[in-house]
Specification:
The protein has 475 residues and is of the alpha+beta class. It has four domains: 90 residues, no CATH class; 170 residues, no CATH class; 51 residues, no CATH class; 54 residues, Phosphorylase Kinase, domain 1. 15% of the residues lie in helices and 32% in strands. A five-stranded antiparallel sheet has the order 9-8-17-12-15, with no helix packed on it. The N terminus is likely disordered. It binds 2-acetamido-2-deoxy-beta-D-glucopyranose (7 copies). The site of one 2-acetamido-2-deoxy-beta-D-glucopyranose has 3 residues, from loops.
């Protein structure tokens, strides 16, 4: 196994560790879900023609020696391009690994070897090098390198290619290049145009860009790389010198880059959403999916509609676009704090909690008013409770007195009249005429029906005030 391949396998193994669960990868029935830990979602597929859409074939390569590890590579390219990850939505992306282009020189400036880093994605194919997510880096000490892509077919064109982009890096002092600073001293970087497919690096090595007397910096490098994944280090100028400078030979250095892809079935004529929709072979098969026109090259891709996520290229059983539970993701729902989030098919709603209402679920009463109201309600409840206890106690005392005075027996004896406390008060004219006092009670004069005079004895005991005795006088 070559060193570069070993590095590649290690890189892939790292990716594999990050994505082991492939049950969520949507594939055609009976097709392989992953290779070397990389999920292979439809329209990508491995093996049988029914497993992938035309142009999306992936090969699962067994590169034997180191434990028989497998790596996925793009199929039907005339070079081995390892795949790091594939994603179908919301954006169509494929991350791949490409070797770095290089050239090296001897002390008199003679070129001893080079590798132009050609990439050959068919222009009619599904892949484009993403201009949004990648950029071109050039590393060297007296060099101009540019990437050019997509040959101009016939016609009287000014240049041979449709796209060119590059930059110049110059330094004549080993102390100039600084780690992390890629701004012309030993390193430069530049955006690339959209639509790049077949690319090659144009590297200059003589005349004005002579590399004579430049042993401190024997090689130049150029690569397109995913933005943010390369950080220039001054040591990169000297640590990637190939041991065998036979042309073309890869150095032990690869870079990840992002490819855009799109459905471009040019043979069926369906290349934009307007043309593709409702034609046989329309790729957006899931209900709750929609068509989006490609922004990098012709064609279209599919996306799940708002409120859904998943693989829009398959329908039903195998995956498709499924409802997003917005309530589980605070960033996806705008339910105010005083509300409860309820997931619905394709959306969600917010229900105000008790005591709140309106669009932003404000409390019905402002806080101070609510506090006062709560206090009022609580204190009136307490007052009511105390009143009930008082009433109940009074009633119990009355019943106890009634029983103690033989009330029940008296009540049953039909001829006996029982007077209420109010009646007694009236009979004695509010206990106004005291006619005697004993050890146990005071005797008052009373009159019944304005003619019958009676004596009413009332207990002295404070607790037994209610205990009275009525004696009818003889007269
Ligand atoms: C790959 O194919 C293209 C076009 O068919 C050709 O120009 C190129 O030289 C090939 N590259 C390799 C490395 O064979
Ligand atoms: C450098 O390379 C050139 C061309 O390959 C060759 O003619 C020359 O002799 C080499 N010089 C040395 C010092 O090796
Ligand atoms: C680069 O530095 C060397 C040694 O210091 C010097 O001889 C040479 O002229 C310099 N070249 C340029 C282009 O400045
Ligand atoms: C790049 O490297 C420099 C120097 O080592 C470091 O200060 C900087 O944080 C690095 N930047 C990133 C994005 O890794
Ligand atoms: C360099 O590599 C080439 C091709 O891989 C091979 O034919 C040649 O023998 C190698 N030379 C040395 C010195 O290893
Ligand atoms: C895909 O759909 C999501 C959800 O509706 C949306 O946020 C995103 O912008 C869409 N992406 C494209 C490229 O249309
Ligand atoms: C068995 C197998 O597929 N071996 C491949 C390992 O990788 C090298 C370089 O990419 C290929 O040339 C071999 O065919």
């Amino acid at each position: 196994m070559s060193p570069s391949l070993l590095l590649l396998v290690l890189l892939l193994a790292a990716t594999a560790a990050a994505s082991t669960d492939d049950s969520s990868v949507s594939v055609m029935p009976g097709c392989q879900r992953s290779c070397g830990g990389v999920g292979i979602p439809y329209p990508f597929g491995i093996g049988d023609e029914a497993c992938f859409r035309q142009g999306f074939e992936i090969r699962c390569m067994n590169n034997g020696s180191a434990g028989g590890g497998e790596i996925p590579v793009l199929a039907r390219t005339n070079q081995t391009i390892p795949v790091l990850s594939l994603s179908v939505a919301p954006l169509p992306e494929a991350r791949v690994l490409l070797p770095v282009a290089w050239q090296c020189f001897n002390s008199t400036g003679g070129r001893t070897g080079f590798y132009p880093g050609n990439v050959n994605f068919n222009e009619a194919g599904v892949y484009r090098i993403s201009n949004i997510y990648n950029e071109l880096y050039v590393i060297g000490c007296n060099t101009l390198i540019y990437v050019k892509g997509v040959k101009n077919q016939g016609g009287a064109s000014r240049f041979n290619y449709k796209f060119y982009s590059g930059c110049v890096s110059v330094t004549n002092d080993t102390d100039d290049p600084q780690d992390g600073a890629c701004a012309g001293l030993g390193c430069c970087h530049v955006d690339i145009p959209p639509g790049l497919t077949d690319t090659t690096m144009s590297m200059f090595g003589d005349g004005y860009w002579s590399h004579a007397d430049q042993e401190f910096c024997p090689c130049d490098y150029a690569f397109i790389v995913e933005k943010g994944s390369y950080n220039f280090s001054a040591s990169d100028l000297t640590t990637h010198v190939p041991s065998n400078q036979t042309t073309p030979q890869r150095v032990d250095w690869s870079m990840p880059l992002r490819l855009d892809w799109a459905i471009r079935d040019s043979d069926s004529g369906s290349i934009s959403c307007a043309q593709a929709d409702s034609k046989p072979g329309y790729a957006c098969r899931s209900s709750h999916s929609e068509c989006v026109d490609s922004t990098n090259g012709p064609g279209y891709f599919c996306n799940c509609t708002k409120g859904y996520e998943g693989n829009p290229y398959v329908d039903g059983g195998g995956g498709g676009c499924t409802d997003v539970n917005e309530c589980e993701h605070p960033e996806l729902n705008s339910c105010p704090s005083g509300s409860e989030c309820i997931d619905t098919e394709g959306s969600y709603k917010c229900r105000c909690k008790l005591g709140r209402r309106g669009k932003d679920c404000r409390p019905i009463f402002p806080a101070p008013a609510a506090a006062i109201l709560a206090t009022l309600v609580a204190s009136s409840c307490l007052a009511l409770l105390l009143w009930f206890i008082y009433k109940d106690r009074k009633r119990r005392i009355k019943i106890a007195c009634f029983d103690k005075n033989g009330g029940i027996i008296l009540k049953e004896a039909a001829a006996i009249v029982i007077f209420t406390e109010v009646q007694l008060k009236k009979i004695t004219n509010n206990y106004s005429t005291r006619i005697g006092k004993g050890a146990f009670g005071t005797v008052f004069l009373g009159t019944i029906d304005d003619k019958q005079r009676v004596a009413v004895k009332r207990s002295n005991d404070e607790d037994n005030k209610g205990e009275v005795e009525v004696q009818f006088s003889k007269g």
